[in-house]
Input
Amino acid sequence: MADLRIAAIAAVLLASSGSGVAVSQDDLLERFLTPAPQERQRIEQVEIPVAQERQIGEQQFTAFERQLRRQGIRLHTSGPDHRYVRQLVTEIRPLMSHHQRYPKIRVWIAQTDVTDAHAFPGGRVVITSGMLEFTQSEAALVGVLAHELSHIDRGHQLESLRSFLAAQNSWKRGSLDDLMAGGRLMMNAFARPFRPEQETQADRDAVRWMMQLGYHPDALADLFERLADRDRGRRVPLPGFLRSHPWHEERQRDVRQYAAQEARKTGVRLDQLDLAKENWKDRRPRRLR
Ligand SMILES: [Zn+2]
Output
């Protein structure tokens, strides 16, 4: 991998020095990191068969599980919390654009105080017991789970692989422009494992799905607010759900704005939506009441 990366940088340096335009290192770096619209299109056009996706997800999950085990954190697939989360995921899944590609979403609870959640390609979700406790309402928990399902639905975790494959395709074509594009695509494959705009997309999908299921989107905004309050003045190592996400305050603001906009668009009355706190306390989904 490292050799290819060096080749990619060399290719772009070669191509840009050949163009005769003087550019600073920062400009170059920014160019590496920002795929042009047609490159973005090339990334999106790369198809990954579902069987391959599942395989990738399984590998990532196994590595994650091993990492947790080293920290003494156990994963559960039984008990009231697990059943509850699984029931909620079953409610959300049909709202995914590609729900047919993901007929089954598997769920694990990681036993730790850390507030976190992860999604893996192919349809796997891990939520920590710390996050489950921190949500304080069924609406917020649905928001967190919906956010993770959105990452799966939009194939966000496959973006690096797609960039990598798109880079290879570019290099096969072989012109100088293709070589340049290949270099940028390759950098995109390694530079940013999670992009902030993907987090915003996942938050917005979560808001829409919450509203469609009758949950008040403020629950998700409030969750971000409480995370911001908790972490204020505290430098925490940011784990998966929080890593490279826009700051909690920004996410909180965006969720509220987007919810208001969606309410206007769809005619949904926010005051008629539910936080379902009692359901969360009883671990009994609102729909099953
Ligand atoms: Zn996320």
